[in-house]
Every structure is written in C-alpha cells, then in structure tokens.
Amino acid sequence: MEVIYEDNHIIIVNKRSGEIVQGDKTGDCPLSESVKDYIKEKYHKPGAVFLGVVHRLDRPVSGLVVFARTSKALARLNKMFAEKEQVHKTYWAIVEKRSDKQATPLPTDETEDYHLLTHWLTRNEQQNKAYAHDHEVAGSKKAILRYRFIGRGDRYDLLEVELLTGRHHQIRCQLSAIGRCIRGDLKYGARRSNPDGSISLLARRIAFVHPVSQQSITAEAPLPADPLWQALVPGNKARD
Questions:
Q1: Whole-number CA gyration radius for the chain
Q2: pLDDT in tens, 113-168
Q3: CB contact set of 235 (below 8 Å; sequence gap of 6+)
Q4: Which end of the chain has fewer CB atoms at under 10 Å, N or C?
C-alpha cells in the first residue's frame, strides 16, 4: 500500500489495480482494511480504528482514493463529493485507436483541446455494465465528461479525462461509445485483456478543499509500472 498524503483527518492512498476499496461479496480483503491496519500500526492505536470510505474506484482501475480518519471529515467530504463541491478529479486513460469502421469521427479529434461528451446511461445490474445512448431513454441518467489528447502512439493514445457527472462505469462506457475503448477493458469492447487483469485507467490527480483546515489539497498518483504509460507521456517515443 502506498500512502500519498495523510494528516489527522484524511489519508489518500494509491490503489493498485485488482484491489477493492470496500468489502464486497467476494470476501477479499479490501483496501480500507489495509489502511486501518497501517494507521493502527503507525500510530499505535488501541482498539478499533475509524476509517470512512468517501468514494470508490472500480476494481481493475488504479489510482488515488481518499479516506476520512474522523467522523467530522467524513461527513464534510461526503457532502463535497456528492455535490461535486470543491472537488476536482482527473483521470488518465490509454485508449485504442479508432478504426474507420467505428463511431462517427469527431471533427475536433486531432486537436489538443478538450472535447465534451454527453450520453444518457442505463445500467444492467445483472451484467454490472452501463450502456450509452445518444438521447434520453427510460431509466437513463445524463452523463457528461470532457477529455483531451495528451499522448499519441501507433496503436494507442493517452487521454486526460474529467468527469462532470458521476455515473456507474461512466468513463469506460462513454469512451467505448465513441470507439475509444480503454486498453484491457474487455467488458467495454477492448480487443484484448491486459496481462495483469487491469484496465489502463488511472485516477491520476485529485484536488479539493480540506474538510477541516480549508486549505487546498492536491495529490497525484504515480504512473503504473507498465512501460506503455511512460512511453505515451509527451516527450517520450511511444512503443506500443
């Protein structure tokens, strides 16, 4: 477990792909328990350790997760994250090149400007999968994100993505809908899986106002060990 930031009220850790943030029906040990163990050992805490889960990342996704160490911080962070108030999250995604036979090309696809994507998403609980629609349908929720190109390779590109709404599997589903499947994401149409079972989606950066001190907090996750991440960063030659 890698701690990126901590103080008396919050702790930010870098989640590895394959870890679950909170306990589920699999029975696997969640990241939240690992963080509790870390706090208990480091600070010699007697008894149970309080830790509040503020938000989650999908299991195959890596990157930053914020936890609350006090009930005061948890209540305020829950409100901030739910209302998108004073919280700014940035994701990086390695996506497949789009073929001519896929989605209609976007007119600004070759610029470095941000592109806005708007869909209406429905969710299939049994499949644990979201579906994108270009218009509102029964049971759908509006989903908006924006993205820009920050690195290009022969077979893959690197995108920076900002969520303007928070929907189930939103980034994975919306990028797939425009023919930009996230590398390794078989559920949403990727050509092949990644060797470690991950998908190439990283919760790269988070910035928010501290729930107690009111100071600005910015944290950044390191790039995964996969060399393709390094290769697609601007200034490096892509080797994909």
A1: 18
A2: 899 999 999 999 999 999 999 999 999 999 999 999 999 999 999 999 999 999 99
A3: none
A4: N
